[in-house]
From TrEMBL:
Gene Ontology molecular-function annotations: phosphatidate phosphatase activity; transcription coactivator activity
InterPro entries documented for this protein: HAD-like_sf, LIPIN, LNS2, LNS2/PITP
Gene Ontology BP terms: cellular response to insulin stimulus; fatty acid catabolic process; positive regulation of transcription by RNA polymerase II; triglyceride biosynthetic process
UniProt region (Disordered), positions on chain: 18-55
Domain LNS2/PITP, first and last residues per copy: 116-272
Protein name: LNS2/PITP domain-containing protein
Species this protein is from: Micrurus surinamensis
GO cellular component, as recorded: nucleus
Pfam family, one: LNS2
Comp. bias regions, Basic and acidic residues: 18-36
Domain of life: Eukaryota
Length: 323
């Protein structure tokens, strides 16, 4: 009986082991099948996604990219068919909060060899910076005497005028209207582009009146204008301002000190090369032919004039002999 029991026991153990091995093998095969199925599904999904991503990548590669800009390219400017002098244009600007705004402006077409005279507005045409923003709107004439007559004479000699101010762009219409209404005994200011700071009214007023750093905008703006004429050209002939920051900005665009003029609230005009001598706009208008000679087609630049060519060169001095 024992052997039968023991034999049955051994047989039971062997059968149990075989059943366990079979069950393990079945589990392994099912796991392997599941892994294979999942891997095949992943491969199918990845291949399907790859098939989808391929045309997306191709379409993204050939889609044109657009960027908002207020600067026109040369081809776009050519399509405008501009004429010499001022041209009236209308464009729209779309913003998130203000929507679409319709703007009117002027595009000036000049020759590559034109000579430009720069003029500040506040403190240069007006008598002071802060009151120059306020008093003209109240009907008060706050313009320097003789400046309109001087600028008109300079313009008749063939020079172009460029008005550059650190005022906000929102004051463009007011500033343009003020310059057009300046009347000094029948003399009017010459027309020209008005370049203002592309910022809000409070930030522009704070930068110009409180911080007193308008040269940051003026240097960048005048540098862009100078680059339009070429890298080695000097289109700016003279400049008028009322602060040391204006002088610094004008020097940064290669203007000589002999043709930089500053005016104080009293109307006294100072040439930066000779700061001791003081003049006025009216007195400068009497000798305008000497500082602003008429521009003709055959007139050479001052660097190649008769005086510059025939003058005797200065002797070389060795400063070590004086030590």
């Amino acid at each position: 009986g024992r052997w039968w029991f023991s034999w049955r026991r051994k047989e039971h153990e062997i059968s149990a082991r075989k059943s366990n091995e079979v069950s393990k093998n079945q589990e392994d095969t099912t796991l392997q099948r599941r892994q294979n199925d999942s891997s095949s599904d992943e491969v199918a999904i990845s291949s399907h996604q790859g098939d989808r991503s391929m045309p997306d990548a191709i379409t993204q590669k050939f889609l044109p990219t657009y960027k908002k800009s207020l600067r026109l390219s040369s081809d776009e400017i050519k399509k405008l068919n501009l004429r010499d002098g001022p041209n009236d244009v209308v464009f729209s600007v779309t913003t998130q909060y203000q929507g679409t705004c319709r703007c009117e402006a002027n595009i000036y077409l000049w020759n590559w060899n034109d000579k430009v005279v720069i003029s500040d507005i506040d403190g240069t045409i007006t008598r002071s910076d802060a009151l120059g923003h306020i008093l003209p709107h109240l009907g008060k004439d706050w313009t320097h005497q003789g400046i309109a007559k001087l600028f008109h004479k300079i313009h008749l000699n063939g020079y172009k005028f460029l008005y550059c101010s650190a005022r906000a762009i929102g004051m463009a219409h007011i500033t343009k209207g003020y310059l057009e209404c300046v009347n000094d005994q029948g003399w009017m200011l010459p027309k020209g582009p008005i370049l203002l700071a592309p910022s809000s009214l409070f930030s522009a007023f704070h930068r110009e009146v409180i911080e007193k750093k308008p040269e940051v905008f003026k240097i960048a703006c005048l540098t862009d204008i100078r680059n339009l004429f070429g890298s080695n050209s000097r289109p700016f002939h003279a400049a008028f301002g009322n602060r040391l920051t204006d002088v610094y900005a004008y020097k940064e665009v290669a203007l000589p000190e002999s043709r930089i003029f500053t005016v104080n609230p009293k109307g006294e005009l100072i040439q930066e090369l000779i700061k001791i001598t003081k003049s006025t706009y009216e007195r400068l208008g009497e000798v305008v032919e000497f500082l602003f000679p008429p521009i003709g087609k055959d007139v050479a630049s001052p660097e190649f004039s008769q005086f510059s060519y025939w003058k005797s060169s200065l002797p070389t001095v060795d400063f070590e002999d004086f030590v």
